[in-house]
Amino acid sequence: MITGLGAVSSAGIGADDFTAAIRDGRCTTGPITSFDAGGFPHRNAGEVPGFRPEEWLTRIDPDRWGRSSQFAASAARLATLDADLRPEDLARARTGSVMGTTSGESAAIEQLVGEWRSDGLKSLSPSLVQAVPAGRIAAAVNTELGIDGEALTLATACSASNYALGYAYDMVGQGEADYMFAGGADSVNRWAHAGFYRLGALAEEVCRPFDTERGGILTAEGGVALLVEPYERAIARGARIYAEVLGYGLNCDADHMVHPNAATIAGCIREAQRNAGVTPEQIDYICAHGTGTRTNDATEVAAVREVFGDAMPPISSIKSMIGHTMGAASGFGALICCRALYEGFLPPTANVERVDPELGRGVDPVPGKARQAAPQVVQNHGFAFGGNNAIVILGKAA
Amino acid sequence: MTTDTARRPLPTDDFTPTLTTLAVTSTAAVSPAGVGTTALAAALAVGGATGGEATEGLGDLGEETLPPRPVRAVPPLPFAELLGRKGLRNLDRTTRLALVACQMALDSYPGSIGPGAGVVMGTSSGSVRSSGEYSLRTLQAERPYLVNPSLFPNTVMNCAAGQVAIRHGLHGVNATVAGGALAGIQALRYARNATRQGQAERLLVAGAEELSAQTGWGWQRSGALRPDFPLGEGAAALVVEPEEVAHAEGRPVLARVLAAEVGFAPRGRLFATLTTCIGRALDRSGVAPADVRSVALGATGQVGADRLELRAVRGALGTAGMPPTVDVRQAVGETFSATVTLQLAALVDTWRQRGAHPGEAALITALGHDGSVGCLVVRGPATSPAH
């Protein structure tokens, strides 16, 4: 059961602000401020504006932790509040965290690179070096909340949060943990901006998944955390249950580092549905990986069509609003799925003016603003470099 | 298990799941001691890698130099011969070392790994040299975007795992755990869950760490390691599968991973947390402290952590006393996220050579600078592999 949600994103801090922005179809990407993007032809991203970690964190000293860790710990703190729990409740139980990431503490690495360039490797700041290990992202969650269970960081790139949610579901389901935080965090960085630009995958202004005029992704950042606990515990403490994890599927393309593969993704969808004990007809909505590249749209829709035939459920991309938050992306997807199930709406795709006819018939990207609906079972997609596909199925709490 | 009813206010807490045993059915290592687990075990026996300071295996360090401290590098490897030339040029050292170890583990695996197999790779932050150089290029190039797109995947932490899957056609779960010193324990813990969930029939569990000027100076500047402790590198890979599958298909079991327990503590509670973690692992494994015939330590040479680790192990084993220790880091240097996997590969080789006593178990511990602790409890093969 998912009973707490926390978000730190360009679309707001806290799950309520985030959800309100998404429901409204508000595009929250904009000009990059965290590094000098002047030399890049494309200069927009989804940054968390004016993030002040000290407003959210009580135990962690922001000077000793990287930006991604700060995002993760803040999101977990917010999820704790949202779940109506006190940190001491969590600390008394067996509580752990599993967080996904693509580039770990990339902001710390880029600061070190700046020192390297100016004064050589021998000038690296010890405190920055100590902030580099990606495993600190989950460690930050445990440190901030004073919890003594597992602290696992999964570095499976852009599907990592779905990996994390699947793992948390297993740990709680097997009785290895009483509570698990699952989510992810990443920071906007210059090297990924350059890399995506050179791959021809970076949008000029805005991200328009499914649209004829799409131009690619916008890099983005943030942190997201979902609190997972067993049904009995949630009921016993009278928790608000947003959604239930019904199951998940993972597989690997094993054919190319950066190009997705429709057949393997279709296999992953089938595996997730099998694991969740649902059939395609039961899926009311798909929260797409939806990066905004032509390749992703074509591949993702082809995979969905392979499983659903022409009866594809509505499929939308929140990356149209917040950009591609990398390791946090499928966590934000899961969060909005929880709110969609709980409140009864379908999240929209922003910036869609004309659905690309090449995607074929029956693609409903929920253009514009959220649509009132009563979804019962939804499917959250996450695909990644390395062919790491991860799909989670969530259901409305009974 | 450690039962503490005061901490367990709700009914779900009383349930402690049974652990499923993972069988290790192949091992491989590439380290400063050379290629293979036997070279590694031999280096352990004499207390250090032969060849010692030679660093020509590292190849071109660019314009940088290593810090002035002892280092242990993997000797020059014929990567083109071992891995083939195709696509090799764009692969960084972390990925190459991982590919070599995985290739060797599959070569010595008595069976076919199959397309349903998965990969769990241990890392800390991927190749910091790759991401650092990529980032530097954006500062140095005439235009910040004049980077090589073919090298971009190297900057992403799951590069090695993805490349292993591509090379061997492995379509099962493909995970990368960023645990640093804990990575090997987390990887086996993850692998155990993945087999239990049916996400892969069997898995390659590996860890890889490259020595570079960037990581070398990072260690030097962080002050985390004693100045005389050598920096190392290497990779190890294991094939793991459910024990009953290995038995049913007649594959010799080299070792059995009984427990992979983890915990977390702020600095002041590390000792107690590691002691508890070891106690829980032994308890859940059904292994008595007296059956622990060797201990592989993970924090030797780490400022502030090494004594704490030793005390915790002594405390957890109690009157059974401290058995002989296995310590690959003393032999081949700091190998960070490859350490636990190398330790297990070395241990298996030791058992293979001298034969494990019936019921003999080993304890492998690790702790991270961030507060993570963990341990493995591993038993030797049920019967001697000579039979």
TrEMBL record, chain A:
InterPro entries cross-referenced by the UniProt entry: Beta-ketoacyl_synthase, Ketoacyl_synth_AS, Ketoacyl_synth_C, Ketoacyl_synth_N, PKS_Beta-ketoAc_synthase_dom, Thiolase-like
Catalytic class of the enzyme: transferase
CDD domains cross-referenced by the UniProt entry: KAS_I_II (cd00834)
Annotated signal sequence range: none
PROSITE patterns: KS3_1, KS3_2
UniProt domain Ketosynthase family 3 (KS3): residue ranges: 1-396
UniProt keyword annotation of Iron present: no
Superkingdom of origin organism: Bacteria
Location(s) in or outside the cell: Cytoplasm
The reaction(s) this protein catalyses: (3Z)-decenoyl-[ACP] + malonyl-[ACP] + H(+) = 3-oxo-(5Z)-dodecenoyl-[ACP] + holo-[ACP] + CO2; a fatty acyl-[ACP] + malonyl-[ACP] + H(+) = a 3-oxoacyl-[ACP] + holo-[ACP] + CO2
EC number annotated for this UniProt entry: 2.3.1.41
Main location: cytoplasm
UniProt keyword Acyltransferase present: yes
Subunit structure, interactors included: Homodimer.
Similarity remark: Belongs to the thiolase-like superfamily. Beta-ketoacyl-ACP synthases family.
Xref: PANTHER family: 3-OXOACYL-[ACYL-CARRIER-PROTEIN] SYNTHASE 1, POLYKETIDE SYNTHASE-RELATED
Name listed for the protein in its UniProt record: 3-oxoacyl-[acyl-carrier-protein] synthase 1
Source species of the chain: Streptomyces kronopolitis
UniProtKB/TrEMBL annotation, chain B:
Listed Pfam families: ketoacyl-synt, Ketoacyl-synt_C
Tagged with keyword Transferase: yes
Residue intervals of the Beta-ketoacyl synthase-like N-terminal domain: 23-244
InterPro entries: Beta-ketoacyl_synthase (IPR000794), Ketoacyl_synth_C (IPR014031), Ketoacyl_synth_N (IPR014030), Thiolase-like (IPR016039)
Keyword Phosphoprotein: no
Domain Beta-ketoacyl synthase C-terminal: 275-350
Keywords carried by this UniProt record: Transferase
Stated family: Belongs to the thiolase-like superfamily. Beta-ketoacyl-ACP synthases family.
Protein name as it appears in the record: 3-oxoacyl-ACP synthase
Source organism: Streptomyces kronopolitis
Name of the gene: fabF
